Amino acid sequence: MSSTLRLALAGVLVLALAACTAAGPRERTVTVTHAAVTATLVDAAPTGTSVGDQRYFSIVVGGDGGVGRLEAILSTTGIDVPQKGTEIRTGQLIFTFGTGEDQVTVLGASVYPSAGSTIAEGTTTIRPIVGGSGAYAGVSGWCESTHNADGTWRHILHLKG
Predict the structure, then answer these.
(1) Which one, out of 9, 121, 130, 136, has a CA that is 20 to 30 A from the CA of 158?
(2) Where are the alpha helices (DSSP H) in the chain?
(3) 8 A C-beta contact, residue 116 and residue 123
């Protein structure tokens, strides 16, 4: 191969790589909806609202990603924080689609009313997306979860990658 041809091919490769880098990671949103949820509460000692209480959810979801499930665990980590009558709960939400290999994992902390098993109706919370598998392998971003006034839910997965 001549040096002129090598130089031309190298130039094309540099331009192609620059174009890919300039485009950045792929960005998209996936909207997921589901009915009202009922939590299974595991009440840590002492009885009543306390650090260590856990709430579990498992529900069918639908939306842009297809039919799937939401598996979630909320763990109480702070009582009367940031104010009296509220608490901090860390959440692990796993959205699965199809036969389960397509997943998006969401982790984060949010403020909840102490008397409720979920965020209040009519409110939204945002948590980071920490990864995925299958069709969502390598994603990051954030999840915007809204508890609608009618008790239903909408999760907008803002995906990068």
Answers:
(1) 121
(2) 3-23
(3) no
